[in-house]
Amino acid sequence: MKITTVGLGLIGGSLCKHIKKHTDYTVGGIDINPETIKMALSQNAIDYEEKEPGSGDITIIGLFPDKCIEYCTENAAKFKKDSIVIDVCGVKKAVVDAVEPVLAAHDVTFVGVHPMAGREFSGFEYSLDNMFDNASFIITPTKNTPREVVNLLEDFAYAINFKKAVITTPEEHDRIIAYTSQLAHIVSSSYIKSPTEELQLGFSAGSFQDLTRVAKLNEDMWTTLFLMNKDSLCFEIDQIIERLGEYRRAIDSGDAPYLHDLLKAGRIRKEDSLKKNL
Amino acid sequence: MKITTVGLGLIGGSLCKHIKKHTDYTVGGIDINPETIKMALSQNAIDYEEKEPGSGDITIIGLFPDKCIEYCTENAAKFKKDSIVIDVCGVKKAVVDAVEPVLAAHDVTFVGVHPMAGREFSGFEYSLDNMFDNASFIITPTKNTPREVVNLLEDFAYAINFKKAVITTPEEHDRIIAYTSQLAHIVSSSYIKSPTEELQLGFSAGSFQDLTRVAKLNEDMWTTLFLMNKDSLCFEIDQIIERLGEYRRAIDSGDAPYLHDLLKAGRIRKEDSLKKNL
To answer: What does the mean pLDDT of chain A come to?
Structure first.
């Protein structure tokens, strides 16, 4: 099998390294930066440079969502007929809606994919050949996606050593990701901004570090991702604001039994969540 | 020096183990549960059982805040004259205000202390002889506390292997702890309660685990701690609700530059915070 990867950043680069480590597939790489291509070649992440897509049985678009849509649209006629194109973006519906019909018109199947891992750095220099060893490979087919394409992508995920492949819809993916990932970044970014943060006397709890870790984010990427998943994300922000208001009312009114109930319900919910994810 | 520890739970028990490991002080233990005393003796965390306070140069009250106030009030006349009594509670002003004058009337100096470490378990069986190796020992003197008592407690903290001793006031401690620890538990408990939590398809991001870790809490203890620090905690909840509202408005209105600014400010704030804590 021949793979073409467009955009050798953290995710694209790591996928190439996984492919080369675990399979005998041939990997061609496309990147606007010649230094990145040189690095990828020297680290054996790709077999050769390509200038344009067209030879891949699977083409991986390792670009930010807006650039991914732009690239696929501009190069729609160049992909190999009957081949598969996948992206790696953190939102799915906006990308799939924009790209799937454009490529379908050229007999190319586009499928939205989300490899669920990341680091607080970006660029090929931080890519790893084990980044996805414990990660899920989320595949989001639509009603137009042939079953054999989904099967092939599932096999691909396991072949390159993802822990599991998960199949869902673009809509469901976006609802879940709004909660498990996007909201975490919004809350973390909000948390760090209290005026009290400036008073810290050199004692901070582990819980503070946990709650604010992902405030260190790439604002270019997340601005795009958030705006492409507006409804689900606003729903989650509303939810947590409402919950916070309940705790506030219990505390402000000194209502110990109510506060105790709220905390207990959260503790049980967390314990159940841990059990589900075992 | 002779130490008496009242309440051999997770914190009291771990303090005893630190003392026995790092000093040649004598430790007497008081606990309502005879099994706990037996365990503490067999693990050499205490040298002998005591039934009443009275012999300690330093007495450590390892009880929840309400029980700590009750115990000190009821036993005020029994502590050794000119000795020091400290607590280990997560709130300071309510405890210090209640206990300091009562013990001062018996020539005993009460100082609020907060050993900054914990585990998601409670009881002597989870106590550790290294729990405080990387922790801060917060000392909260008032205007009545003699300077030599503060010095002695600082020396005590380093002698039993705390990483550092930090001196602040009860009020300042409570403002900071409302932000770095209490708010984290409220946010985490709120976060886990979204209806979307039930939809999770077996893919959850690391950020979700970080944001919800401390939702698994002891609701009995935290209800008391929160209600004893009402004003500071309500202030922090108001702050984060206000910040969340800003992100929500930026996302809902599709205002990319505003959202980008908000995220960038949070990222910079987090980076500065990390530098300060190096």
So the answer is: 95
Give the CATH class of A2-168: alpha beta
Q: Which residue of B has its CA nearest to A198?
A: B273
Put simply, the answer to whether B247 touches A179 (Cβ < 8 Å) is no
Of the candidates A258, A202, A254, A207, which has an alpha carbon nearest to the alpha carbon of residue B233? Answer: A254
CATH classification for the domain delimited by B173-276, as one of 1.10.1040.10, 1.10.760.10, 1.10.3660.10, 3.20.20.150: 1.10.3660.10
Among the partner residues B184, B194, B267, nearest to A217 by beta-carbon distance: B267
8 Å CB contact of A199 and B164? no
pTM exceeds 0.95 for this model: no
Burial class (CB in 10 A: 0-12, 13-18, 19+), A241: middle
CB contact set of A65 (below 8 Å; sequence gap of 6+): A87, A89, A90, A91, A94, A95, A224, A225, A228
Domain limits of chain A? 2-168, 173-276
**Closest Cβ opposite residue A186 in set B181, B234, B244:** B244
Mutate to test the interface with A, among B240, B246, B264, B278 (most CBs of A within 10 A): B240
Q: Which of chain B's residues have a Cβ under 8 Å away from the Cβ of A233?
A: 251
Bridge partners, A2 (sequence order): A26
User: Please, what are the averages of pLDDT over each run of 10 residues along chain A (278 residues)?
Assistant: 97 98 98 98 98 96 96 98 97 97 98 88 93 95 98 98 96 95 97 90 79 94 96 98 98 98 97 82
Write down the H helix ranges in chain A. Answer: 10-22, 34-42, 65-74, 93-104, 147-159, 170-177, 183-191, 206-212, 219-227, 230-252, 256-276
Please give the backbone phi and psi of residue B105, each rounded to the nearest 5 degrees, phi first: -65, -20
Query: What whole-number distance in Å separates Cα of residue B176 and Cα of residue B93?
Result: 12
User: Average model confidence (pLDDT) for chain B?
Assistant: 95
CA distance B251 to chain A (A): 6
**What is the maximum alpha-carbon separation in chain B?**
68
Distance, first Cα to last Cα, chain A: 35
CB A48 within 8 A of CB A28: yes
Residue contact A189–B266, C-beta within 8 A: yes
